[in-house]
Every structure is written in C-alpha cells, then in structure tokens.
Amino acid sequence: MVSKVFYLPWNRIDSFAAWLAKIGAADHVRENDFTAIKIHFGEAGNKGFINPDFVKPVASLVSGRKALPFMTDANTIYVGQRADAVRHALVAESHGFTTKNCGCPVIIADGLRGNSGAEVEVNLKHFKKVNIANAVNFSDSLVFMSHFKGHEISGFGGALKNMGMGCGTRAGKYSMHDTLNPSVNESLCTGCAACVKWCSPKALKVSGKKITLDRSKCTGCGECILSCPERVFSIPWDEKTSNVQEKIVEYAAGALKGKRHFSINFINYVTKFCDCYATKENPLLDDIGVMASSDPVALDQACADLVNSKFGADFWKHIFPEIDWTVQLKYAEQIGLGSRKYELEEFL
Prior knowledge:
By secondary structure, the chain is of the alpha/beta class. It has 2 domains: 3-176 and 238-346, Rossmann fold; 181-234, Alpha-Beta Plaits (2-Layer Sandwich), CATH 3.30.70.20. Helices cover 31% and strands 20% of the residues. It is built from 13 helices and 15 strands. The protein has helices at residues 16-23, 55-64, 85-94, 99-102, 134-137, 159-164, 170-177, 194-198, 223-227, 239-256, 296-311, 315-319, 327-334, and strands spanning 3-9, 34-39, 68-72, 117-121, 129-133, 141-147, 149-151, 155-157, 183-184, 204-207, 210-213, 233-234, 260-267, 289-293, 342-346. The protein has a 7-stranded mixed sheet with strand order 3-2-6-13-14-1-15, sandwiched between helices. A hairpin with a 3-residue loop joins strand 7 (149-151) and strand 8 (155-157). Helix 10 (239-256) crosses helix 13 (327-334). The model has no long low-confidence stretch (mean pLDDT 93).
C-alpha cells in the first residue's frame, strides 16, 4: 500500500489555509463531531512550538463542517508548568493559544491532575490496555498538528510521538518511560542541584557536592538530562530505548482506535530536543515546510526522508548516533497504523 503525503514548502507558507482546503484536511470530520486538534502548547520558555496562527485555518475547516473543534494536550510527568490543567492552560494562553486567536478553546485532555483517562484495549507486545486522556478518547475525530524535530529517545518526534506520548494520561506516560533510568557520571557533578529542582519523583539528592539517584523512584522522564549544565546524566543507549519507541507507538494505536483522523507536521525550527523543555535552542536547519496525510506512518517517514535529503545525510543519526529512529516507523507499520511507502504531492 502506498499512502499520499502532501507537501507545502515553507516559501509557500502564506498559502497554508488554501492548501489545507485543497488537500481535504477536514474531510474526515462529520457534523456535530467533537474534533480534537491535538497540539503541543510548548513548555514555558520554549520557542519551538507551532505558531498558534496556524490553528485557526484548521479550526475554521472543522467548524465549516458543522463540528465543534477544540485544542488539546495532556499533562506532563515532570516538574514544569504543564503538569496540571490550570498551569497548563495558562501556558497555552501565554503562548497565544486562545479562542480569539485560534477559533476554538483549549481543553486539557486528562483533566485537573492528569488522571482523567480511559483504558483502551490494544492487545499488543508491551500493553494489553493503554490509558488514553479523556478528551482524546471521547472525541469523535482528531487532527494532529505536530512539530517535527529531534527527540532524545526516538531520534525524532512527529505525528506518532504526538499521538502516543502526547495522548497518554500521566499514568500512561509513566508506563511508557518506566524502564528508562538515566546513566549517571557522578565524577562530573559540581553539586549545583539544578537537576534536583526538576525531578518530580524526588529521585535525586545532592550530598557532599555529589548527586545520587534513587532508581526505585526514577520515572525516566529525562528532565535531569536537559537541566544539568555539566552533562552528568545521559540516556542509556540500549534495547530499552527501542522498547520505549514501541510503547509510544502502542499508545498511538490506542489513541487512534475507532477514530477518524488526519495529521499535519511542521518541519520548521528543527531542534535537537523536543518542545517539553524550557530551553531556547536555536534551530539546526532552515525551515523546510509542512507535510500532511491521513497516514501518520507515511507522514513521519516522508518528513524524516525530506529532512535527510535537505541535510545531505542522515540528520537523525547525526544528532543522535546511538538511536535507531526507524524503530517507531517499522513497528507502527507492523501493527497496522499505516505504511512507510508513500507518494509525495507538492503544492505548486
């Protein structure tokens, strides 16, 4: 099976609304649908999230089909401004994701404390059931708007990552991360305790200007890796990272089960790490464009290929040499989420 993937080059971004209408980005939406526009609002201090101005044309198409669009994302498991619905909504508002700007409201998908979810049966390799955030699970149709960039576990994060990790409740996120404890080089530690402030489960402690990690408490969220200025922490590059990629894909399967959906990936402001961190990374590549498809596997494959083509080599191996970024794509295809084969249609 070959899937259609649509491509809008960044130098044609002014045609975004017209392009969406032409490719039928909301054709899957039916009258009276509750349509979730699943998007990452960006951590406070982050600059890589999708510009909220791009939401309005999507919401307009959905509304035009007499449906009810809303923007949504689920709460996080790390210390930050998006671990509960109140602060999460305030971050979204501060970044411009308002009803006035976007044409639809924000609803935090897994509720006040991140525990509002539903068990969805998937019967796959790692999970029999997955815990999907209520606003996603009880929606009728979905539009995923994903920032395509690097990711410290999967090499890149795109539509599949947005569907999987992004649609899980806090409990779901813990279950995806649960085997991934960081490696610790205590000899590099200066005792600054920057990591301690970001450690939600209180697994880190500074004693005698050296850090210690209680692995029984660690959730594998990765905040210590990003917050440490001395590079004390690192991801253990072994089979566990592949397992996490597969777990994310299984959560994507749960999020999509029984749902009509369409996905839009933005390949701009491409950074090494995801938008979950309050880091103001500079982009590593020039803005490339926007791609879209009803097949998230083909879409992510096409985006990864296009980035590699523009870079002139395997960009994802360049930024994360130890990660096999194809794991998520191979497994997603294996369990029936889509095809890695695609036909590209460029907007001219």
